[in-house]
Amino acid sequence: MFFRITVSIIHFLLWIFNGTIDVQGKEHLPEDDTYVLIAPHRSLLDPVFIVIAAAPREFTVMAKAELFENALFGWFIRKLNAFPVDRENPGPSAIKTPVKALKNTDKSFLIFPSGTRHSTDLKGGAVTIAKMSKKPIVPAYYDGPLTFKELFLRKKARVRFGQPFTVERKLDGVKDITAHYNDHIQAAFDQLAQDIQPKK
Predict the structure, then answer these.
(1) Around Cβ 170, how many Cβ atoms within 10 Å?
(2) Are 109 and 37 a contacting pair, CB within 8 Å?
(3) Tens of pLDDT along the chain (200 residues)?
(4) Which of 95, 103, 63, 56 is nearest to 81 (CA)?
């Protein structure tokens, strides 16, 4: 309830300052099952717009442990289904927590495979979580304001969802499953980035 109320309030504020979000491909989001939603991470704003675009679905999300050091802010983001992860030494909980949530709750999992806003190298966490939970991966792409200045200048925000796919434990002729699916994810991101622009 707290998650959905907060998302609704933020959505209303963004509508005031930035207008309506152009949501594309929402029909690809599974309605009757949880899933792993993945996207490139370029800004503090992209997870906000992506979660709003996928509403009313709730998500769990990992956040760097430092964000939980402030008791009040830590309480707030925990209420938004965030859990702490030490980015230098992630530990097994970085995998087990989202897998458990995907299997045992109605919450999906949002992850940015590059890990940080300043990295384009895909990590294997998303693939591992999807494989262990036996849930599909849905790629997403955000195109819009990357800074608060661009937000208030009303740069158009767009979110596009791609086709879901499942992660198989084994594939004939494929030795490195994670690398294989990371290539698939990157290709999906590239295609979404190409398709998200409005038709001329």
Answers:
(1) 6
(2) yes
(3) 899 999 999 999 999 999 999 999 999 999 999 999 999 988 889 999 999 999 999 999 988 889 899 999 999 999 999 999 887 777 788 899 999 999 999 999 999 887 544 444 456 788 989 999 999 999 999 999 999 999 999 999 999 999 999 988 777 667 788 888 888 999 999 999 999 976 55
(4) 63
- Global confidence as pTM: 0.89
H or E stretch including 188? helix 177-195
Please give the Cα distance from 158 to 136 (Å, whole number): 23
Alpha-carbon radius of gyration of the chain: 17
Expressed as residue numbers, the domain containing 52 is 2-195
**What is the phi/psi pair of residue 75, to 5°?**
-60, -45
In a domain, 13, yes or no: yes
- The CATH code of the domain that includes 100 is 3.40.1130.10
